[in-house]
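I am still learning, so can you show me any protein sequence you like together with the matching structure tokens, please?
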Amino acid sequence: KSFVQTIGEEQIQNPYTELLVLKGHQDIVRFLVQIDDCRFASAGDDGIIFLWNAQTGEKLYELHGHTHKITAIAPFSSSDVTEEKTDLIITASADRTVIIWDCASGRQVQKVSCFHSTVKCLTVLQRLNVWLSGGSDLCVWNRNLDLLCKTSHLTDAGISALVELPKNCVAAAVGKELIIFRLSATNNESEGWNIVEVKRLVDHQDNISSLVSVNDLTFVTGSHVGELIVWDALDWTKQASECNFWDSSVHPDVQPEIKLSQSPHETSVQHLASDKECVFAAVGKGIYVYNLQMKRVIACQRTAHDSSVLHIEKLSNRQLISCSEDGSVRIWELREKQQLPAEPVPTGFFNMWGFGRANKQANQAAKKMQENTPVYFLELVGDLIGHSSAVQMFLYFGELGLATCSADHLIILWKDGERESSLRSLTLFKKLAQNGDLQLKL
């Protein structure tokens, strides 16, 4: 029996009642990256990159240059004040090449193919106007694809994820280890850089699967066995941890599932997101809200989807969006539970033996703690059914809607039906007004 929540056809709080299906990819679409307020790029296993208009769904460019699947993609806008702002994207592929593309023209700017292994992750350091590639080693590059410096060979498994830290540092996930590197520019006039390993953190019991920066003081990591660790971003010390996401004793109000064993796949932290106050974790089939100040999980849906949750994001309101291998995209709202008043301590027998005062004090303490600790829950308010296979990730464009990509080779733009209807009416009225003016002139 499935414990996944269901929602009927009457989805009052779900605005996405229209959809646009974008076709072009020939294989799994794994990546979406936002270029600006109304443009985004998609990439996947066919090695092709498409640029799209998020408002109209128009295909702007089709970028060919890689011969194998795309393994990483990142936007890179020029920050030189002397130049006009240029929107670029960087793509890495299993063909062991990296290409920089110009989003305005769709042309290939630079290509480098000197890598000894596949680049698995890309991170842009806008403030330093450089970008990093992570594979079997960590490389630092400028906008012209000049290699500024690199580390020695790390492991055959290589770097799986990178996150930027303060003071020109980055954290790299290499298997179970988290390696802190520091970048520094040389003092001479040439564009020289050094990259130095400054610390290795070995607190995780299994491979690190997700990294997220919370703010200038904090970042968080998650592993394949469901560990979440909160780190100080300045001195890289462990601040807090959570590893009981799937433990029903931690969340007694959630109906437990009967299982013979808990496989690692069901407890893996697939994705992390943050809104400065909380970390939102996709763990197995569930989604969890971890409050950084309270240092505990404040809300969860242990079976938010029928299969593993692959991506999760918090919107500007109290809503979350999650997508899954089961092909669904779901909207959740974080709500506060109405607390019931604490029951008074019964008198009589306990008072006779002198227990009344102690129980009264304990009850007051429990009541005070209950009043000061809000309890939250996640309520399903929308279910977007359109993909026929695993939804890999999504991008939220505010009033322009939501873009999702899937193993079914499709991208879907989910639109606010009421807004789109109003826009169509407005366009029609303008045309009628223009025709009326034209007739008057004639």
Q: What stands out?
A: Residues 171 and 180 are 5 Å apart (CA to CA). The helical segments are 264-267, 349-352, 356-372, 417-441. DSSP finds four helices and 32 strands in the chain. The longest helix spans residues 417-441.
